[in-house]
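Lab notebook, design round three. We kept the backbone fixed and only want residue identities now. Task for the bench partner: fill in a sequence for the structure below.
Input structure tokens:
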């Protein structure tokens, strides 16, 4: 089973350089809306069968063009919500840089618990559980490989990728996930394989599942497969 992890497009909080968290009404900017339409065009050739997303508005807006293109009804999952940053919610990033907890978040994420909010270890546990739950459900429903999209937030995606890579959560800040980027994980019987990471423009045709009559698919990455992406201005900090 293969999941495309899609981060929402650029939001008003991203441009304001604040930590949006679960603040209500944080929408996509004009650029973010353009990114959402571009993602829908990029994925149009793939046989996507399900779209699951965080309930927050910026994720709803990001998947709307994709859902319209495929004629799908998106499903939301509370477990894909943004991190509950508690008292940090809505604060400027520049102010948070002076907080003692900031260094803990960067270097010892597994021990970081936001004041009045949740811990990053909790975030990873619920997010990975959500992905695994949908993987099992779709497999049982169809009895074959299904390609689907999960649209959520930067830190949530990074925690899922850290799990898939076998990377300790303390190293998850080394992973960069830009707005509107896709990362792809294929879950095989023995292990997950990361096929794309922070991809913002490479060809995706290798993600099309094989026909049922074809030979069993390789569980690992395609030899010579490229990993897309670009430089990120968010490198080395918690992504809003």
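Proposed sequence:
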């Amino acid at each position: 089973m293969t999941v495309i992890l899609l981060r929402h497009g650029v939001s008003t909080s991203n441009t304001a350089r604040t930590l949006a968290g679960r603040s209500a009404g944080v929408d996509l900017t004009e650029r973010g809306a353009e990114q959402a339409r571009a993602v829908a065009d990029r994925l149009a050739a793939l046989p996507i069968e399900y779209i699951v997303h965080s309930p927050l508005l910026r994720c709803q807006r990001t998947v709307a063009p994709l859902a319209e293109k495929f004629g799908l009804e998106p499903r939301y999952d509370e477990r894909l919500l943004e991190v509950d940053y508690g008292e940090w919610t809505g604060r400027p990033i520049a102010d948070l840089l002076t907080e003692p907890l900031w260094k803990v978040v960067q270097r010892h994420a597994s021990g970081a618990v936001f004041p009045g909010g949740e811990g990053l270890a909790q975030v990873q546990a619920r997010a990975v559980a959500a992905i695994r739950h949908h993987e099992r459900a779709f497999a049982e429903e169809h009895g074959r490989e299904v390609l689907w999209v999960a649209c959520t937030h930067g830190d949530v995606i990074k925690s899922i990728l850290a799990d898939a890579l076998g990377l300790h959560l303390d190293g998850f800040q080394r992973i960069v996930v830009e707005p509107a980027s896709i990362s792809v994980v294929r879950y095989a019987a023995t292990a997950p394989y990361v096929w794309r990471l922070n991809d913002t423009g490479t060809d995706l045709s290798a993600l099309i599942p094989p026909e049922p009559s074809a030979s069993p698919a390789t569980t690992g990455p395609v030899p010579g497969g490229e990993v897309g992406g670009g430089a990120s201005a968010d490198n080395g900090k918690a992504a809003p």
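Keep this in mind before ordering anything: Helices lie at 12-16, 30-43, 57-70, 93-96, 100-107, 120-142, 154-165.
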